[in-house]
Structure formats: structure tokens, C-alpha cells
Amino acid sequence: MVEKTVFKKIIDGELPADVVHQDDLCLVIRDINPQAPVHLLVIPRKEIPSLRDVGPEDRELLGHLLLVANQVAQHHKLSDYRVVINCGLEAGQTVWHLHVHVLGGREMQWPPG
Ligand code: 5GP
Predict the structure, then answer these.
(1) What is the pLDDT of residue 38?
(2) Residue 38: beta bridge partners?
């Protein structure tokens, strides 16, 4: 049997997390290793390993994830913030369950490392 990812364990209530939002499609947690004063992860309940695995059937879900990203950013008083999806090893993805990073509360640099 394939081992559950940490995010699936959090969704299933098997691992604790600081949950700041949840609805029928996703949950938002604080990153355990924050890279900015506010670092949130928007995680779909649906198990999708990576952005490259989405299809047309995920159109509504993907839109929802971005709407929620903005909603939680506003809730945390972030007027400026960065949204990141790491897709694949070379891009820095470490957890194989699609998630959207929301980072804010400090000045950001570009290009990212
Ligand atoms: P990725 O590198 O895949 O884009 O992002 C994975 C993120 O998940 C990392 O920023 C990492 O700190 C975070 N993370 C990994 N394990 C846990 C965990 O058990 N709990 C929480 N809250 N975040 C985690």
C-alpha cells in the first residue's frame, strides 16, 4: 500500500496542524517551517500529487484554491503576498499532494532561488 503523504494524514485527522480555514474542498494550515511571517498552505482534500496531474475536471477546484488563498491572505491583513506552487523535484516540491503556498509579511525578492 502507498504511504499517505503528511497532508493526507492532516486531512484525515491523523496528524495535528494549525488549521486556519477549512471547507468541503480544501483546508489551509500554517507551514511547519515558515519562510515568511505568514506562510500558509492551501491544500485540496482531493489527492492530486502535483499540478502536472490536474485535468479539466479540476477547473473549479483550482479556481477555488486561488480564491481561498486570497481570502486567507486578506484575513491575515496581507495586502501584498506571494502565491507559489512548486511542481516537481527540480522546482522544490517535497510533499506529493498539491498545495498552494501563501507567503507574506516581508519584502520578497525576485527571481526566487
Ligand atoms: P513543497 O516543498 O512541497 O512545495 O512544500 C511543502 C511544505 O510543507 C514545506 O514548506 C514544509 O515546510 C511543509 N510541511 C512539511 N511537512 C509538514 C507538516 O507536517 N506540517 C505542516 N504544517 N507543514 C509541513
Answers:
(1) 98
(2) 104
